[in-house]
# Entry
Amino acid sequence: MSFEAITSIAGAETQAKASAAAAELKSKQMLSDAETAGKAAVEAAIAKAELELSELSKKANEKAKTDAGGLSGELENKKAALRAKAEAKLEQAAALVVERIVNN
# Structure
């Protein structure tokens, strides 16, 4: 084999090693970039989910307050109606007691 052929083969081997090292470095950089992008996407999704959860919680609390206010109004109306019935029956009961006392 001639010296030129040997140097040509050595040069090709050196180039191949350099190309392989460059490709490996590029693949590691691409992997790192993909991991960074993935982490950023996950963090963005978490932030979005937390915001949506906060908004839903706020809406649920507002609805609960509204519903509680409505129920409170209903209960006050029922209480007033029961109180009116009780007062009417109290007057009837008092009249009955007086009538029995007077008649005995």
